[in-house]
Amino acid sequence: MEHEATDDLDSFDTLLMRYSQEPRGGEREAIAARIWARFGAKLSVLVVDMSGFTRISRSHGIVHYLSLIHRLQRSAAPIIQSYAGQVVKFEADNIFARFPAPQHAIQAAIALHLAMDAENLLTPDELDIRLACGIDHGDCLLPDDHDYFGTAVNRASKLGEDVGTPGTILVTDEAMALVPDNASLARTRLVVDIGGDRTPVWSVDYRDAIDA
After folding, report:
1. Across 1-5, 82-86, 143-147, which has the greatest mean pLDDT?
2. What domains, with CATH codes, occur in the chain?
3. pTM value?
4. Most exposed: 3, 52, 168, 211, by fewest CB within 10 Å?
């Protein structure tokens, strides 16, 4: 864990409880500042969604779908780690990961798509795994190694789970602005709906990526 509380009074849960029970606005601001100082970090967020839960479960049953989730998790963890990333959590058919910079997250997303495409060549269609990825960068709260919170997490989740379609990598403007100019990325500008807001993003074509 990156932020070790020195005692229970400084734990994430305790500080949140104190905030929720504090009637004075100024004191709440002070507690919030303390939470961010102790548990805050600026990082890149990758959220991966395995496409087709309802369709696959209805057609082949939950055991079939769970087997795909298990295979994806076993394949994804070492790929994410190889690009300086860390799996924060596996949640149903989603993967939540964090990286030091957007370029690492994009590289990992490209590698995940390519790895699944390679595996899909060896399996019948009903065992194919198709992914949608969302990436953002910003301030996050890290209470421990197994969860994180923040606008970047929310937006990456929306892009990966709700907006993205199979085979996509959607990257926010904020994240793409931090990618080096010499990165070889085939990308297209889009405007998508994130929580009711029309938001410009970039769609990265992993098939044309060269040493992103």
Report:
1. 82-86
2. 8-38 (no CATH), 40-208 (3.30.70.1230)
3. 0.90
4. 211
